[in-house]
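Q: I have 154 residues here and want to know how they pack in 3D. Can you give me a structure?
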Amino acid sequence: MRDKRFIAEHRGGLLKKDQHLQLMQWACDCAEHLLPLLGEHIDERLPYALRVADAWMKGNASVGDARKAAVAAHTVARESSDLIVIAVARAVGHAVATAHMADHSLGPAYYALKAVKHAGKSIDAERSWQDSHIPLDVKDLVLSARKNKKFSKI
């Protein structure tokens, strides 16, 4: 069962529009923060998906546009055998999918931890970066939801 705190008010949930936008921004920040792990060869579908997410936040893209961009990002993951690319692409896919379902906003944080682990970097430093970038209005929501998810199994 979905956490009603992540369901938009207009769909019968508790999430206000401004909170949804804050979750989307945080998710995109988490995903974009990972792109340097890919070096110079970044599949264009990933930055494109983040641009669609930005357009959605500004009211210039539809949820359908965001879903298509999310699917394209996840396709990048499926096409790769590189564990870092897979994790980064999944992070981007979940970030843009936040337009459709706000609880996807937790995905980029999870996949970021996987990406930095595969890159030989500090999971603790990444988690600290994530926590420091959560908007205050949704911080309790994110931290409490994260406790109930698979974050401890990385």
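Q: Anything worth noting?
A: The chain has a mean pLDDT of 94. The radius of gyration is 14 Å.
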